Amino acid sequence: MHSSLLRLKQLVQAIHPLSEQEWTAFSGIWHPYSAKRKEILTVANQQENYLYFVVEGVQHVYYFDDQNREATLIFSYPSSFGGVVDSFMLRHASRYYYETLTTSSFLRASYTDLETVMRHNRGVETMVRLGITGALSGVLERLVELQCYSSADKFRKLLQRSPHILQLVPHKYLARYIGVDPTNFSKFINSIKA
Asked: Domain of life, per the record (predicted)?
């Protein structure tokens, strides 16, 4: 089995174990895809057509408000799913952008293929539902952080969740994620470490 499919299988089995038949059906819909650094994979106002499994690289989902301010919402990196999942699953135009921050490689599956496999394999449908529920749980935790935590506490929580993030993600995106002015981020990090 190709190493990227093996990593996908490890993630899937951690969410909800599949039978060999279900895994064969599910693994058959994923295709290699690569993107250069700073390539926009999903554009706001267009429908997301793919679910991504990140093999290499770092990406982010971001949003522009009516004053053209950018907000980084989510980072994705190896051995995680990526893309604009609400647009993908609900079949509506995305409100967000999905962009590579580094050269990236993926496995990706189309909505049509995933829908077909879910319809014919109850275990796959259960795994996708549990995966989305887990993602929703993470979003709810993030809302608590945004509404209740200081910037320093948000940063500490991010480092606790993803200790390697400082090495993976350029600091200006981390600053946007926690709501700190990117020009002051170095001072901010030093004040947290002190």
From this structure: Bacteria
